[in-house]
Amino acid sequence: MDSIISVRDLAKVYDNGFAALSGARLEIEEGEILALLGPNGAGKTTLISIICGLVTPTDGQVTVGGHDVVQDWRRARSLIGLVPQEVALEPFEKVINTVRFSRGLFGRPADPARIEQVLRQLSLWEKRNEKIMSLSGGMKRRVLIAKALAHDPQILFLDEPTAGVDVELRKEMWEVVRGLQDAGVTILLTTHYIEEAEAMADRVAVINGGRILLVEEKAALMRRMGKRQMRIELGTPVDRLPESLAAYGLERADDGAALVYTYDTAADRTGITRLLNDIQAAGLVLHDVQTRQSSLEEIFVDLVKEAS
Amino acid sequence: MNWPAILAIYRYEMARTYRTLAQSVISPVISTSLYFVVFGAAIGSRIDSVEGVAYGAFIVPGLIMLTVITQGISNASFAIYFPKFIGTIYELLSAPVSFLEIVIGYVGAAATKSLLIGLIILGTATFFVEVQILHPVAMLVFLVLTCVSFSLFGFIIGIWAQNFEQLQLVPLLIITPLVFLGGSFYSISMLPPFWQTVTLFNPVVYLISGFRWSFYGTADVGIGLSLAMIALFLGLCLGATWWIFRTGWRIKS
Ligand SMILES: Nc1ncnc2c1ncn2[C@@H]1O[C@H](COP(=O)(O)OP(=O)(O)OP(=O)(O)O)[C@@H](O)[C@H]1O
Ligand SMILES: [Mg+2]
Q: Contacts of residue A102 in chain B, CB cutoff 8 Å?
């Protein structure tokens, strides 16, 4: 697949001397959902702001659809819709007017049918004539998304779109985003909700201290870094682990009512068969066995720790 | 040029004007009427005509200038300061819109608004005094140039201001005194010679003088000089805007 956005050796030093980005590289492929993860202050918003033209880069190059964001900014920006991290909306304006305005700003001719479609898609149509200040926080976020979609962008940047949004609405937004991907829109998403990246992303990029630490297929990353845990519930709790099981690195849980075994899925032998046999040999009674894959969150915490 | 974008900004700003019609139009009309009642009727009845023009009529051009200058500045400065303040400027900066297009949209709307208010005040004035316009074309040229120049100046203030105090500072501390001392309510020739000379350093004097000439054919300074001064002011504002555009001063980090 072709890169629709290509970030090369990007650096940003703010006026106060702070280096928010240094040597950041990233290729975003057409049609994918890329989740950009990183702790507070990692440089996610700075990276997005440079691509969108809000911040001037100190060094490096960014192209969007082959257009340089500094030299050929007009063409580059026409392709992008931006949903900013901070909710910034004119409080006294009506929902529909502010969405129409966004379309006009991008040089697109008025298209009431399209505006209606966008507002309906985000469940805002009933609220179209309300003033923005009368909307709830979650609805304001949806207005931001509607504004970003009003000019039919090929690329959508979502900078923490679901911060402060309840579970139901968050799931709704995921649906909208998936629908956009089906329509061919490339999406870059930042989030602190790892389950969001886990549910949505095709690929995951991890940024910390202004550097992109890794970019990888989400599934491959989970496979590579992922640890599985097996939880073995016992018929009767044990006070101490039997000597014969010492080599497995088991943890006692629930006051000895359960044992937790951690193993690597990528290894040739997981050791499960042997462990279960040894448990039986030690005279313990199995009540139940469950396995669980570690979440992206755990993977991500490990990565950031590793890099620092 | 992204004309649809310019139009979008212009329309959006004009729509704000209609929404806030009361403050935008009614308040200048009321305050002008008060000027006429106080200066025109109460005081003016005790003042002889100035340079052959009744005092009530003499102050009309100055009052219009006073209003379009302050309105142009406050409208344009607020129009661009507000998006900076609430953060909606992100949209302007991330859209395929050049700074020039942003300026045309905002300054165009602010200038249109102050022009309309100027004309409404002119209409109001005819209810109180007998107004004569000897050179209507020149009058409109002066009015439009003034609206555009000071709206542009207001736009620059709006970009420069980092809080509401600064937004009020320049209009309050510099513009209002200059306009009041610019001959709105008197002819320069009524001042002692020393103050006449000092006054010539006030650029607003040239505007009001030229504008009054287009009404009654009398002026404190030459009409060519008046035009040259307003062209110079417009040129300075354009230069400053161009520099802001080049550097992204106070809008981009
Ligand atoms: N205008 C600015 N001037 C100076 N420093 C800035 C500016 N904007 C951001 N920074 C600094 O740059 C660093 C990266 O900020 P950025 O907003 O890109 O982080 P982020 O990854 O988006 O964080 P978060 O998850 O909290 O949104 C931070 O340390 C921040 O303080
Ligand atoms: Mg951020």
A: 91, 95
